[in-house]
Amino acid sequence: MLQIDAVEAVYQNAIAALHGVSLNVRAGEFHALLGANGAGKSTTLKAVSNLLPAQRGKVTAGSIVFDGHNVGRTSPAALVRLGLVTVLEGRHCFRSLTVEENLLTGGLGRSSSRTELAKDLERVYAIFPHLRDKRRALAGLTSGGEQQMTAIGRALMSRPRLLVLDEPSMGLAPLIVQDIFRQLKRLNREEGLSILVAEQNSTVALQYADRATVLDTGVAVLAGTTAELRQRSDIQSFYFGES
Ligand code: ATP
């Protein structure tokens, strides 16, 4: 579904962030992108969702193909229409809109009827029941976990086929992290949603994902099933530290 092949990327300060990243997310797969702080996980996801120019960065080599389309120059909005939707690091919500208004913004790109939007909202509330209780609260006043769920819920409102998430566990309590990953797994299993998640929290990512790719200083150094990677205690301590 998503093929990243030998991608290299630099930022304006000419520091090369990616030196050749290749990874493959199969249709229906839950794929984790792992690696230490600064390994290049966020840069890889920004390359996929064409957000590097906004950071004064660019892809200088390699190719990114989504569903048969070469998407190297496809705008983020067009990617959403193709079915590739990204949830950025840091729980991006419109803080002064309510939770429900935030969710509804995710459906704006489609010409959906009110009934369809209402159905999609119900689907998000079924996944994150907590958001239903908070639907009239200003997103900026909700907890970190609720903001992350709102950000994911908003992405789901655009009906992605591949959901890309950057470090959804960041700054959240372990129980909330488990809850979020459990729901992602459920979407993956029950609805066939393909997922690519970058995570520093390798324990939770290896627990829920099917396969993983490990980055080290801008290079993909390892890929395999999470069952295989969980066995490799040498790799665990070398690449993942204590997380
Ligand atoms: P983290 O979990 O800390 O975000 P990461 O694995 O996602 O780590 P990246 O954020 O992709 O790593 O960073 C890869 C390299 O690119 C690092 O050396 C980082 O300093 C550099 N970098 C990231 N963003 C920028 C930027 N906007 N401008 C310049 N250099 C950057």
From TrEMBL:
<comment type="similarity">
    <text>Belongs to the ABC transporter superfamily.</text>
</comment>
<feature type="domain" description="ABC transporter">
    <location>
        <begin position="2"/>
        <end position="242"/>
    </location>
</feature>
<dbReference type="InterPro" id="IPR003593">
    <property type="entry name" value="AAA+_ATPase"/>
</dbReference>
<dbReference type="Pfam" id="PF00005">
    <property type="entry name" value="ABC_tran"/>
</dbReference>
<keyword id="KW-1003">Cell membrane</keyword>
<dbReference type="InterPro" id="IPR052156">
    <property type="entry name" value="BCAA_Transport_ATP-bd_LivF"/>
</dbReference>
<dbReference type="GO" id="GO:0005524">
    <property type="term" value="F:ATP binding"/>
</dbReference>
<keyword id="KW-0472">Membrane</keyword>
<protein>
    <submittedName>
        <fullName>Branched-chain amino acid transport system ATP-binding protein</fullName>
    </submittedName>
</protein>
<keyword id="KW-0547">Nucleotide-binding</keyword>
<keyword id="KW-0813">Transport</keyword>
<dbReference type="InterPro" id="IPR003439">
    <property type="entry name" value="ABC_transporter-like_ATP-bd"/>
</dbReference>
<keyword id="KW-0029">Amino-acid transport</keyword>
<dbReference type="InterPro" id="IPR027417">
    <property type="entry name" value="P-loop_NTPase"/>
</dbReference>
<keyword id="KW-0067">ATP-binding</keyword>
